[in-house]
Automatic annotation (TrEMBL):
<keyword id="KW-0934">Plastid</keyword>
<dbReference type="GO" id="GO:0030089">
    <property type="term" value="C:phycobilisome"/>
</dbReference>
<keyword id="KW-0249">Electron transport</keyword>
<keyword id="KW-0150">Chloroplast</keyword>
<comment type="subunit">
    <text>Heterotetramer of 2 different alpha chains and 2 identical beta chains which form 2 alpha-beta heterodimers within the heterotetramer.</text>
</comment>
<comment type="function">
    <text>Light-harvesting photosynthetic tetrapyrrole chromophore-protein from the phycobiliprotein complex.</text>
</comment>
<keyword id="KW-0602">Photosynthesis</keyword>
<keyword id="KW-0089">Bile pigment</keyword>
<keyword id="KW-0157">Chromophore</keyword>
<feature type="signal peptide">
    <location>
        <begin position="1"/>
        <end position="17"/>
    </location>
</feature>
<comment type="similarity">
    <text>Belongs to the phycoerythrin family.</text>
</comment>
<keyword id="KW-0732">Signal</keyword>
<feature type="modified residue" description="5-hydroxylysine">
    <location>
        <position position="52"/>
    </location>
</feature>
<keyword id="KW-0813">Transport</keyword>
<dbReference type="InterPro" id="IPR004228">
    <property type="entry name" value="Phycoerythr_a"/>
</dbReference>
<protein>
    <submittedName>
        <fullName>Phycoerythrin alpha subunit L1</fullName>
    </submittedName>
</protein>
<keyword id="KW-0472">Membrane</keyword>
Length: 129
């Protein structure tokens, strides 16, 4: 049933994307933003269980432009450009969050905390009548 719903939503979205009147009301950026929102919302609509060992991509960017230290960690051909001193490292790691941080965020999200985490409070809590 879920697969049929997702297919139907994709069909409707593609029909709306190529409608002749769309060029009058929306631009490409709005269409892509809507498609991105649909992609994000699709797993939320399903009953997929969250696994404890799911991994997330960690991207590290190394930029050695202007560094005077001799670089001997790369032995391949040079591109003779600024990318010779740059590197991107991608690893998949399990993200862990402590229970106290999760509890603080939960309190912030459900509105029991007057200010956000790590934000100094300027005045007292406003009384609600």
């Amino acid at each position: 049933m879920l697969a049929k719903t997702v297919c139907f939503a994709a069909l409707v979205a593609s029909a709306a994307a190529y409608a002749p009147t769309m060029s009058l009301s929306a631009n490409r950026r709005q269409v892509i933003a809507g498609a991105g929102a649909a992609v994000v919302a699709a797993p939320l609509a399903s009953n997929a269980a969250i696994k404890k060992d799911q991994k997330a991509p960690i991207i590290t960017i190394f930029d050695n432009r202007g560094c005077e230290v001799k670089k001997n960690n790369y032995s391949g051909a040079k591109a003779n450009g600024m990318e010779d001193d740059q590197c991107v490292k991608l690893t998949m790691e399990t993200i862990t969050v402590s229970e106290t941080t999760a509890a603080k965020k939960l309190q912030e999200f459900i509105g029991l905390k007057a200010t956000a985490i790590n934000v100094p409070q300027i005045s007292g809590v406003t009384k609600k009548y």
